[in-house]
Amino acid sequence: MKKVLHKAGSRGAAHHGWLKSFHTFSFADYHDPKRMNFGVLRVINEDRVTGGQGFGKHPHRDMEIISIPLSGALEHKDSMGNGSVIRRGDIQVMSAGTGVTHSEYNASRDELVHFLQIWVFSRRQGVTPRYQQMSIADGARKDEFQQILSPNADDAGVWIHQDAWFNWGDLSAGVERSYQLHGSDNGVYFFVISGQVEVAGEQLSSSDGLGVWETKEVSVKALSDAVVLTMEVPMHLPEYLFH
């Protein structure tokens, strides 16, 4: 088993008045050659946007972009004609593929929106752009890992063009669970939404992250009531990135 630990305070940070953003991996003006990605997991940004503000229209290609609100309301618009508002308990995914532009704004004038934006490299270039959102609260299971994303359209949660599985774990203090990986070439990244947990022997608190690979399973123990996001991804980057 191999591990990489990213404590919350070690992340890159950007403060623009209307935006407070923390970057687990290199992003924008934050660059650390040792923190470029975890396998095909390229970006984990924890963003807080003030009322009425947000990210204007901007383009993406060949990236799977996942948004998970933690509080407040996030308004999405894109060049495919989609428009929606998502809140805690929802997940949104956009496959950029051949190219798409989108904007993400705080849907409220006076309430902060707090959300995670996660980027995963697509399995292949040039897929048809698509958008999907759903409520993950509907299938919520206390003290279990609830699948919220997979590679399969007919499986639980949203789907993306990558062999990735995300789970939401709402765990009571003292609960112990084992996360079983789907593939031997995969790793799993744990991001703590709230509370304190012990993962693979490492104590983690809110906004800490731990990547684990070269293992078939990982032990997770809630040291307090806690919420954990697991992101299992291939550790090898797609070949098109090297062409």
TrEMBL record:
Keyword Iron: yes
GO molecular function: metal ion binding
Keywords for the protein's UniProt record, in alphabetical order: Iron, Metal-binding
Residue ranges that the Swiss-Prot or TrEMBL entry lists as coiled coil: none
Superkingdom of the organism of origin: Bacteria
InterPro entries: Pirin, Pirin_N_dom, Quercetinase_C, RmlC-like_jellyroll, RmlC_Cupin_sf
Necessary cofactors: Fe cation
Pirin N-terminal domain segment(s): 13-120
Quercetin 2,3-dioxygenase C-terminal cupin domain ranges (all copies): 148-233
CDD domains, alphabetized: cupin_Yhhw_N
Binding-site list for Fe cation: H58, H60, H102, E104
Textual note on the cofactor: Binds 1 Fe cation per subunit.
Family: Belongs to the pirin family.
Protein's recorded name: Pirin family protein
Species this protein is from: Tannerella forsythia (Bacteroides forsythus)
